[in-house]
Amino acid sequence: xxxxxxxxxxxxxxxxxxxxxxxxxxxxxxxxxxxxxxxxxxxxxxxxxxxxxxxxxxxxxxxxxxxxxxxxxxxxxxxxxxxxxxxxxxxxxxxxxxxxxxxxxxxxxxxxxxxxxxxxxxxxxxxxxxxxxxxxxxxxxxxxxxxxxxxxxxxxxxxxxxxxxxxxxxxxxxxxxxxxxxxxxxxxxxxxxxxxxxxxxxxxxxxxxxxxxxxxxxxxxxxxxxxxxxxxxxxxxxxxxxxxxxxxxxxxxxxxxxxxxxxxxxxxxxxxxxxxxxxxxxxxxxxxxxxxxxxxxxxxxxxxxxxxxxxxxxxxxxxxx
Length: 321
Ligand SMILES: Nc1nc2c(ncn2[C@@H]2O[C@H](COP(=O)(O)OP(=O)(O)OP(=O)(O)O)[C@@H](O)[C@H]2O)c(=O)[nH]1
Ligand SMILES: [Mg+2]
Fold this sequence. Notes:
By secondary structure, the chain is of the alpha/beta class. The chain is built from 10 helices and 9 strands. The strands form 2 sheets. A 6-stranded mixed β-sheet has the order 2-3-1-4-5-6, with helices on both faces. A 3-stranded mixed β-sheet has the order 7-8-9.
């Protein structure tokens, strides 16, 4: 029998490149929320996968997208998010840096001039050179590009920017290329015994995952600055065991915090329509997660300017200790 391996690999990259989608796809279970909007993920989240035949445990770390914190009230929350991602960089055994395929029209334009790293990605590469960790370059969303030759200048340019252990094109959505990526991630792990119990899939509690599933629906259903002005707290989470003819179920009450009265009006919606829609969809998602019926009560509350207030940020889990 060979020796066992275990360790951490962080998924890093600019917002919206598909880090959380990739985490879920590798685990075969949805633990991280993923939406079409950038800056969906706000905290680090661990996903644990065991490979019994290889005596290996891979602990993936999903991180917020790396971006330059900008803007007025949001900056403190955004600084926290970037801090979470940068901290992950120094604490893991290896990294997967994810970039995404540009849309076909943009790609065509790019291929006509010499390749140049954009600001966001050159920031990431600079950080990578600072921590000097082994890293895999992943080009995600290849399902969007029919003519794969158009990707070559980009792959070549990124390829030269760091000493990658390997460069892999994937589609986190369809699962294309993931088997190879998993084999390569495993190679980055040091020898060692499993770090977490075999049955553990994430470090986050069900309550926290539930709050995220509510936030996911806000991100999907509301527009403009609303998603970025919203946080969720769970006020009550009561598991009720099966009794008589009732199956086991969970009663959840949660608050949607917004920054302004005008935002509350939008999140509540006409006659409560919006908050009802958020509730219906989130309840279904939480029920899928727990595998039992869920009752969900939502409240909407104004916490004036919470994205810039340390004490409120702390209560909502957005301050580092
Ligand atoms: N077509 C296609 N879309 C993808 C793929 N991977 C992710 N997406 C989509 O890209 C969007 C962003 O995905 P996320 O997984 O939330 O991206 P992220 O990198 O975690 O984003 P942040 O948390 O905001 O940094 C979602 O709409 C996904 O469905 C892919 O392989 N192909
Ligand atoms: Mg994410």
